[in-house]
Amino acid sequence: MENSPLVSILINCYNSSNFIVRAVSSVINQTYQNWELIIWDDGSTDDTIKILKNKFNDKRIKIFSQNTNEGLGPSRINAIKKINGSLVSILDADDFYNNQKIYKQVEVFKMNKKVAICATWANFYDESLNLVEKFESELTNEEIKRRLLLVNIFPHSSVMYRKDLAINCGWYSELYEYSQDFDLTVKLIKNNELYLVKENLTNITQPSDSMTKSEKYNFIRIKENIKILETNLKHDKLSNKDFKRIKSIIETNYLKLSIKQLKTDFLQSIIKIFSIIFKNPLIFFKFKLVRTLLERKKR
C-alpha cells in the first residue's frame, strides 16, 4: 500500500550468536510494522541459526543460509535477490535500531519522491555498550551530498533506500567486497536526492573482532575506497576544493597501503613511501582529514 510500503530489512550475518537476538528484537519492536526481515547467514559455524529458529516465531522473518562462507560482498548480492519491499533498510548483525527508526524514514520517502536514500544520526558503542562517539552531522542535505563524494559518512545500518533506484544504478557491485555500501550511496545520489534524519535512531556496535577493526579487511577497504574516490574525481559537479581534498585522501590511502605492506615487501614499499612523500612533503599533516570529514563526535 502506498501509505504503508513494505520495508525489507536486510541482515547479513556470520557467527553472530552474541548479537543477533538484539538486532532482530529491535526490528520486531519497531512502531512501523509492515516489514519483512531477510536474514542471510554466510555459513556460520556457531549457534546463530539455531538461536534464530528457537527464539523467533514471526512469519515476517525469513532466514536463508549457505553452507560455505563466501564473504560479505557475495552474500549481500545473494541476499538482495530475496527482497520484496519497495524500500530497503540495512541492519548489520551487531547493530540495533531505536523503535521509531523505520517509521521516521518511511515518512521521509512518502513526503519526498525525489529522495533515493535516507540515513539517520547514530550512536557508536564498544562491545560493552559504552558510548564512544556519535554521528550527529549538522550539514544540510546538499552539503552531505557533496561530502559523500569525499568520504562515506553514513553508517550503513542507518540507511534506507528505494529498491527500484538501487536496481537502476546497479545495486551492490561485484567489484567490491567491503565498500559496496559506499559505492551504492555514491551511485544513488548521482541523479537523486538524499535526506538525513537528525535523530539518534541507529546504534552501531564495534566489537574487538569486528570487520571494522580487522587489519585484513581494512587493507581491502582502503584499496576499494581508492577505486571509488578515483571515480568520484570525474564527477561533473565537483568543486576545485573538493577535487583537491579527494586527491589528498587518495594519496594518504596509498601511503597507508605502502606502510601496511612493509612487512611483506619492504624494499618496494619503502620506494613507494618515499615517492609519495617526495611528491607531497606535507602528506602526514593530512592523515586526519578523513576523520575530520566523517562528522563524528567523541564521547
Number of strands: 10
- Taken as a percent bin, the fraction of beta residues is 15-25%
> Roughly what is the average pLDDT, rounded to an integer?
93
Helix vs. strand class: alpha/beta
Number of helical runs? Answer: 11
Query: Helicity range of the residues?
Result: 25-40%
Give the end-to-end Cα distance, rounded to a whole number of Å: 41 Å
Q: Could you name the ranges where pLDDT drops below 50 across 5 or more consecutive residues?
A: none
User: What order do the SSEs take from the amino end to the carboxyl end, as H and E?
Assistant: EHEHEHEEHEEHEHHEHHHHE
Compact overview of the structure:
The chain is of the alpha/beta class and 299 residues long. The chain has 11 helices and 10 strands.
Description:
The N and C termini lie far apart (41 Å). Strands 1, 2, 3, 4, 5, 6, 7, 8, 9 and 10 form a ten-stranded mixed sheet that branches. This protein has a domain at 215-298. It is an alpha/beta fold and 299 residues long. It has helices spanning 20-28, 48-55, 72-80, 101-111, 141-147, 163-168, 180-189, 215-232, 240-260, 266-279, 289-293, and strands at residues 7-13, 35-41, 61-65, 87-90, 96-97, 115-125, 131-135, 160-162, 193-205, 296-298. Helix 8 (215-232) packs antiparallel against helix 9 and helix 9 (240-260) runs antiparallel to helix 10. The mean pLDDT is 93. Strand 1, helix 1 (20-28) and strand 2 form a beta-alpha-beta unit. It is globular, with a radius of gyration of 20 Å. The chain contains eleven helices and ten strands.
